[in-house]
Amino acid sequence: MELLQWALPRLRMRWPGFRKVRRQVCKRVDRRIEELQLSSVDAYRSYLEAHPDEWDVLDGMCRITISRFYRDKKIFAALATRILPELARSVRASGRRSLSCWCAGCASGEEPYTLAMMWSHSLGQRFSDLRLRIVATDVDPLLLERARLAVYSPSVLKDLPAHWRERSFREGPEVDRFHLRSVHRRDVEFRRHDIRSAPLQEEFDLVLCRNLAFTYFVVSLQRAVLASLRSCLVRRGVLVVGAHETLPEDAGTRWTPWPGVASCYLNVR
User: Fold this and answer.
1) How far is Cα 33 from Cα 36, in angstroms, rounded to an integer?
2) Which residues are registered as beta bridge partners of 131?
3) pLDDT 10s per residue in the chain (269 long)?
4) pTM score, two decimals?
5) Rounded to whole angstroms, how far apart are CA atoms 65 and 71?
């Protein structure tokens, strides 16, 4: 724990965000100490100071990968009933035929695939002239590979509406493994990208960055990420953050909370 409190600021991360998940990170650090055949946490701290490349390893160990389908039901309900329909009408009025979404920090694909299912089961018939295009990014190549495989355990499907689960997945040959049907995968493109780096060079109508930047990053890095996300949003596009996250206090008047929907903000540039 003391190691994390010392190391996190150097990684531009903040300790309060890790309080509930610190055990996950500490277990990874313990395994790394054993792998390096070091005697203690203090020895690992000295190793970090003597081996600059090890900071990248520690950075990877600090990535929190907890995810599941339909996580934060109220946000997804608002997306289905209010936000996506309004964005779709705006896209249609502009003469475009594609509504673009970016899921930043997509982990194993649960969030982008939830959006794809939502469009198919709830909105696709109403907006049959439009395509929902989803770009999903993460910094971890192993997570991206899992996302592309789209094979999941029952525990991450438990929050999905029952009819979505029944119509969207098939049981695989493995025990307790469910495969997402290809119809929900075809419009999701996975890319490796670190949101701490340069923004994507394209525009989106909807950006989801949940339970990542505004939980784990220091405020100065939050501001930088927010600027990058905003540069990728069309005017009146929507940013969605985690249910327990807020934007930095000095985010200013460029963002307007979506009326009656927590964690959703309009880009009013």
Assistant:
1) 5
2) 98
3) 789 999 999 999 999 999 888 889 999 999 999 999 999 999 999 999 999 999 999 999 999 888 899 999 999 999 999 999 999 999 999 999 999 999 999 999 999 999 999 999 999 999 999 999 999 999 999 999 999 999 999 999 999 999 999 999 999 888 899 999 999 999 999 999 999 998 899 999 999 999 999 999 999 999 999 999 999 999 999 999 999 999 998 887 789 999 888 899 999 87
4) 0.94
5) 13
C-alpha span between 52 and 36 (Å, rounded): 15
SS3 label, residue 20: coil
Q: What are phi and psi of 42, to 5 degrees?
A: -60, -40
CA 133 from centroid of its chain's CA atoms: 16
Q: Which two tokens stand for residue 248?
A: 């930095």
Count the neighbouring beta carbons within 10 Å of the beta carbon of residue 14. Answer: 16
Q: 84 is written with which tokens?
A: 């996506």
User: Looking at the domain 73-150+183-267, which fold is it?
Assistant: Rossmann fold (3.40.50)
User: Nearest to residue 102, comparing CAs of 200, 211, 245?
Assistant: 200
| List of residues 6+ apart from 136 with CB closer than 8 A | 102, 103, 106, 109, 111, 112, 147, 188, 189, 190, 191
Rounded to whole angstroms, how far apart are CA atoms 146 and 128? 30
Q: Locate all alpha helices (DSSP H) within 54-196, ordered by sequence.
A: 54-61, 73-78, 84-93, 110-118, 141-149, 162-168
Neighbour-count burial of 122, counting CB atoms closer than 10 A to its CB (0-12 exposed, 13-18 middle, 19+ buried): middle
Give ranges for CATH 3.40.50.150 in the chain: 73-150+183-267
Of 184, 156, 148, 153, the closest CA to residue 68 belongs to 156
